[in-house]
Amino acid sequence: MPEEVLFESESRRSREEIAAYLRTVVESLESGSGITFTRGEESVTMDPPARPTFEVKVEREGPADGPGELSVEFELEWDEDGETGGSGGELEIE
């Protein structure tokens, strides 16, 4: 299935700034409201269903014998018709 990027932003931020962005997402999820992403004139609002699929991915990219790049990705996913999929064990984050 082809992918269409609706909004993308990448920038270096302090841990505190990142936490503030994530808090805003948390508050929107808890209140059941949409999440609006804005940068300049560009804006997109997403309205996740009550039970979207939640994916957490921790990756290391780079050579096996040298330093690489580490990343943590959090993803909410759902079909445009509101259906959700996905399954698996319980996630714990400490």
* Spatial strand order of the main sheet: 1-2
Biggest beta-sheet profile = 2 strands, antiparallel
* Secondary structure tally, helices: 1
* Beta-strand content: 25-35%
Please provide the ordered H/E string of secondary-structure elements. HEEEE
Taking the alpha carbons of the first and last residues, their distance comes to 34 Å
The count of strands amounts to 4
What's the helical proportion of residues? Answer: 10-25%
Mean pLDDT: 89
**Rounded Rg:** 16 Å
Shape: globular
Backbone structural class: alpha+beta
User: Unreliable runs, pLDDT <50, ≥5 residues?
Assistant: none
What's a quick, concise take on this entry?
The protein is an alpha+beta fold and 94 residues long.
List keywords for this structure.
4 strands; alpha+beta; 94 residues; globular; two-stranded antiparallel sheet; two-stranded antiparallel ribbon; 18% helix
Task: Describe this entry's structure for a reader.
With 94 residues, the chain is an alpha+beta fold. Helix content is 18%, strand content 30%. The protein has 1 helix and 4 strands. It has one helix spanning 15-31, and strands spanning 35-39, 42-46, 53-61, 69-77. The strands form 2 sheets. It has a two-stranded antiparallel sheet. Strand 1 and strand 2 (42-46) form a beta hairpin. The termini are far apart.
Topology (SSEs and partners):
Blueprint: H1 15-31, E1 35-39, E2 42-46, E3 53-61, E4 69-77
Antiparallel strand pairs: 1-2, 3-4
